[in-house]
Amino acid sequence: MAKLRDVIYNKNISNKLYLKKQLYELHMKEGKAVLEQVNFFNKVISELLPVDVKIDEENKTLMLFILLPQSYDHIVTTMLYSKKTLILKEISSTLLSNELEKD
Known about the structure:
Layout: H1 2-24, H2 34-48, H3 57-67, H4 73-82, H5 88-102
Helix pairs in contact: 1-2
């Protein structure tokens, strides 16, 4: 039983490492659809929950801001100063609306 627990534990640690690496190494590319990139970001965040990695709402949003291409700096600045709380869904919606306006 202890051996099985060790295998499961190691698998969870490996899984956590893999998912965190995906998240921390993610860099959104200029010219690539923001929708696709935000969806991937959200997918990785949601996959961290079952392995007991919890990231609070503000940190998720700040991570997303950091990952955005430089061309989004003005939008990030506007959102940071216009909102009292940072909610990932709201920020994602704003980013996607901005992308639609560009087209």
